[in-house]
Write a structure and sequence with these properties.
The chain is built from three helices and three strands, in the order αβββαα. By secondary structure, it is an alpha+beta fold. It has one domain. Bound molecules: zinc ion.
Length: about 80
């Protein structure tokens, strides 16, 4: 059983292998490292074995998850959080 943050579990079923187009399974993903708000996720395709790196902006993901207003509010002066 793989362990990791909830956002990593949430990536399953949303990103595909750039080589063969297969959806990544949870076991295909592992965190390779983190730096300045970016998390690098190592992806090894279970179908074709091609490896790649996904870059995740965890601060952005957190801000979007907590945001309750419209899309315009994300980028307006008073609603600027990102
Ligand atoms: Zn693949």
């Amino acid at each position: 059983m793989a362990h990791g943050p909830a956002w990593l579990d949430a990536m399953v079923g949303t990103i595909r292998c750039a080589s063969c187009g297969a959806m990544y399974a949870r076991a295909d993903l592992r965190i390779a490292g983190e730096r300045e708000g970016y998390v690098f996720v190592h992806c090894a395709c279970g179908a074709c074995r091609k490896e790649g790196i996904a870059v995740v902006l965890t601060e952005l993901a957190t801000a979007l998850r907590e945001h309750t207003g419209g899309i315009d509010a994300l980028f307006s002066a008073e609603g600027r959080r990102l």
